[in-house]
Amino acid sequence: MYRRTQTMQSSQPSPSLSALGKQFCAPRFWLIWCLLGWLRLLSYLPMPLLYGLGIVGGEFAYWAHARRRDITWRNLTACFPHHRKAAIRALARRHFHSLAIATFATGVGWWGGRARLQRLTRLRNGAVLANARRRGENIILLTPHFVGLEFGGIYLSTLAPTVTMYQRHKNPLLDALIKQYRGRFGIIQYAHKGAGKSMIELIRRGHQFYYLPDQNPGSKRGVFAPFYSLPAATFASLGRIARLCNATIIPCATRLLPRGRGYEIIFEQPLTDCLTEDDPVREAGNMNRVIEQLITHAPAQYFWSHRRFKTRPPGEPPFYAGGKK
To answer: 208: domain range?
Structure first.
């Protein structure tokens, strides 16, 4: 059985929606409140309809958002150099479709009841996670940035006590709303710069760690390790956290199923010794190879529109047109 633990709060309880409304009532926040209401209305729609709307919305965004389209093309061209231009464009369009579907379905994760979340979720190789729990192991879920990441984290937090790290949003209202709805089933969230001993203690006491490893940490907080043979600034903390917590690392990815059938959470076999070399650069490179393998399950659903290669090694030119090193 999964060990029950006493929850250690990483922050003050989330304020109510009415309290947030009083705190963030200035006109500069009105658009976000409108978007929240729009997501709430969309949450009542069935997933097949949200899927269709997302295809239309994603196609529009692909042609209208030139900057993100160019970033996506640049990432895909660099990571898949043997693909023809037509294949890159098709993959980029499917990425925008998937991103729009996941965006339109955000409200399903934020407001959907447990029964609805369960109906929409399929586990592949779920026995991998169940067996680790049965053995009483501490668990790190190595979870790259797929478009279904938000939904997967919310669903998994309904099954067992969960802790995660996140990047604070620059807009304080949006940051508060994301944290509130993402944590509605009790997931404990630490900002990257605020995680420390209390988070480690929670993992040691049985909270599964939903670890998002593939954000750009910059050159000061990360190391440069190969990602699709390109040097990418990478967090190098996975091996250290696993050793501190004596934890099992299970690769995990959440993908959208075709035609709005829901989501599939995929678990791979636990990593053994490939991340226990106590060599940060080597560990980061090994982790990136695991992420590459997970991407093969749904290539279009990885966050290719993110500037993954924004930070470059000293002396290298900017990776993106008009970007900074």
So the answer is: 45-301
Q: How much is the pLDDT for 9?
A: 39
Contact 202, 162 (CB under 8 A): no
The residue behind tokens 């190391």 is 223
Per residue in 227-237, pLDDT (tens digit) is 999 999 998 88
Continuous H helices in the chain: 17-23, 30-42, 47-64, 66-79, 85-104, 106-111, 114-119, 126-134, 149-157, 172-182, 197-204, 218-221, 238-245, 280-295
How high is the pLDDT of residue 18? 81
For residue 3, is pLDDT > 50? Answer: no
3-state secondary structure of 140: strand
User: Residue 4's pLDDT is what?
Assistant: 39
Residue 296 counted as domain residue: yes
Question: Could you tell me if 211 and 165 are in contact, meaning their C-beta atoms sit under 8 angstroms apart?
Answer: yes
The reply to whether 247 falls in a domain is yes
For 302, which DSSP code? B
Tokens, residue 255: 């993908």
